[in-house]
């Protein structure tokens, strides 16, 4: 089965190919010549659907898209859907990490969770999948692998931050991997 994954991120596309396996032919946006798609919704689900719907409307193909946010309990769920631009438009991953450490300085409730929502449009119908990992925001950065908030996020039940794990370990337990696994289970049932 061929599916378009509405992303320009080659790492994400590779991660998804590894999880879904060879029964699924995954093409990313640049392979179909699709430009960047705006993300203007105020929820993860809304953004994921916006991207999948754009591809469906323009290319009439089976497709899916994801959106991820870091929800911090002491910040009433912020930055959530705004995780990429938490420190402002055009900010770097490091800007976001430093802003989070600053905003969380002295805060004792460090609970946070990463959430990924996938929107799938298959034969014209919409389906949603969610992957979530609970953890905590550390008081300083640890590790240099990964991206985004990885150096300050330690998943529950693990000693290492995401940034201290190998890519393979992180990709086995991550929020995105969990959502992708759900997508895979659904597709396997659907195509049986
Ligand atoms: P996206 O929806 O996957 O583009 O994610 C939005 C933002 O959430 C990214 O720009 C990162 O700041 C953050 N993020 C998403 N996934 C991860 C992750 O696996 N580790 C750390 N940060 C992440």
What does this 3D model show about the protein?
This protein has 192 residues and is α/β, with parallel strands linked by helices. The protein has one domain (2-190): Maf protein (Alpha-Beta Complex), CATH 3.90.950.10. It contains five helices and seven strands; from the N terminus they run βαβαββαβββαα. Strands 1, 2, 3, 4, 5, 6 and 7 form a seven-stranded mixed sheet that branches. The protein is globular and about 50 Å long. It starts with a strand and ends with a helix. The model has no long low-confidence stretch (mean pLDDT 96). Residues 67-68, 70, 83-84, 93, 96, 146-150, 162, 174 line the site of inosinic acid.
Main sheet record: 7 strands, mixed
Bound molecules: inosinic acid
Shape: globular
CATH class: Alpha Beta
Name the helicity range.
Answer: 25-40%
Quick structural gist:
The chain is of the alpha/beta class.
What is the secondary structure topology, with strand pairs?
Elements: E1 2-5, H1 10-20, E2 25-28, H2 44-59, E3 63-72, E4 79-80, H3 93-103, E5 111-122, E6 125-137, E7 153-155, H4 167-173, H5 175-190
Parallel strand pairs: 1-2, 1-3
Antiparallel strand pairs: 3-4, 3-5, 5-6, 6-7
Helix pairs in contact: 1-5, 4-5
This protein binds inosinic acid (IMP).
């Amino acid at each position: 089965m061929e599916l378009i994954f509405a992303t320009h991120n080659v790492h994400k596309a590779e991660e998804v190919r590894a999880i879904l396996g060879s029964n699924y032919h995954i093409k990313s946006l640049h392979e179909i010549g699709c430009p960047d798609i705006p993300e203007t919704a105020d929820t993860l689900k809304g953004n994921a659907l916006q991207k999948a719907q754009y591809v469906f409307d323009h290319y009439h193909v089976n497709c899916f898209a994801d959106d991820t946010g870091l929800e911090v309990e002491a910040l009433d769920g912020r930055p959530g859907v705004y995780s990429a631009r938490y420190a402002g438009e055009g900010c770097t991953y490091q800007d976001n990490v430093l802003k989070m450490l600053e905003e969380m300085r002295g805060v004792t409730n460090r609970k946070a969770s990463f959430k990924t929502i996938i929107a799938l449009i298959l034969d014209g119908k919409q389906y949603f999948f969610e992957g979530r990992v609970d953890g905590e925001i550390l008081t300083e950065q640890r590790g240099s692998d990964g991206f985004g908030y990885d150096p300050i996020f330690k998943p529950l039940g693990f000693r290492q931050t995401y940034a201290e794990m190998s890519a393979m370990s992180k990709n086995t337990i991550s929020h995105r991997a969990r959502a992708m696994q759900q997508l895979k289970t659904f597709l396997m049932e659907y195509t049986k």
